[in-house]
Amino acid sequence: MQNPFSISVSEVIKSPSNPRIKELVRLRNSPRTRTERGMFVAQGMDELEILFHADKEVKEIFYCEEKINNIAHMEQLERWKEKKVPLQKLEIDAFEKASYGNNPDGVVAVFKKWSLDLPSSYTRKSDVIVVLDEVEKPGNLGAVLRTAEAFGAEIVLLSEPSVDFFNPNVVRSSRGLMAKVPVFSGTKKMVFDWLIEKEFILVGTSSKSQKSIYEKPCRIGTAFVVGSEKTGLGSFWKSKISNWMKIPLLGEASSINLNASVACLLAEFNRSTSRC
Q1: Is the domain of 135 the same as that of 265?
Q2: Given this model, what pLDDT does residue 160 score?
Q3: Has residue 118 been placed in a domain?
């Protein structure tokens, strides 16, 4: 029996070899293609709704009715159709080629990228921001963005990242919240100069610090600078930061992952400054 919420389209893409499916795969897999096209791929209904609510520009939504088992999701597609959002129906083979990982929602979309340039006109108004130096893994970056949004960090700065911000795994691991937290990127010097100009207090984390995050009160206008899991903060930031804190560990682990570190820092900041 035909789905009562089936959306009428003039053409259904059936083949995984269709040129448009191949283009979706290139956008998904290639940072160079994303840069050249100025677009990126997102999937999952929750992620798409967050991107829409953040006023990010959608180019087209691809959907597969066989993969959609939620009437509310079909109703959402109908609402997008009424708003003139371009919709393209795919048969299951084509959709499985275009999608990645587990995608029970049956939707994949192409969005326009946005600028990550540091804003020259920004007036500091945030209590706390996070600086990620040389972040390498898209899953880590996405998880940190989700954590930063949850704990109320107003900005995340990327200092010479080794990962493409618009990687689909960043979108997925952030649950689309990469569109909700303002993120800016630049060289180490550009990021440092911007922080000084905006009068942020730089705080680095190091297991060698004598002061723990629980002993040293946090101050409004703090920028937590966190290094990569592989190498930590390098010589550039070590020469620029005078405030250092450690996250005390009681077990045998010598360190915790990047997202857990950011969560500890922001949770303690909120507690000690009575933001919660």
Answers
A1: yes
A2: 95
A3: no
- How many folded domains does the chain comprise? 2
- Per DSSP, the three-state class of 163 is coil
Write the single-letter amino acid at 79. Answer: R
The residue ranges of the chain whose pLDDT is under 50 are 1-6
Residues 19, 63, single domain; the answer is yes
DSSP state of 228: B
- Opening angle at CA 112, ends 111 and 114, nearest 5: 125
- Whether residue 268 sits in one domain with residue 132: yes
Q: What is residue 207's predicted lDDT score, i.e. its pLDDT?
A: 75
Beta bridge partners of 244: 204
Record the pTM.
0.88
The answer to whether residues 126 and 155 touch, using CB atoms and an 8 Å cutoff, is: yes
* Claim to verify: residue 172 and residue 85 sit in the same structural domain: no
Work out the end-to-end distance of the chain between its first and last CA atoms, rounded to an integer number of angstroms.
Answer: 52
C-alpha–C-alpha distance, residues 59 and 72, integer Å: 22
pLDDT of residue 64: 93
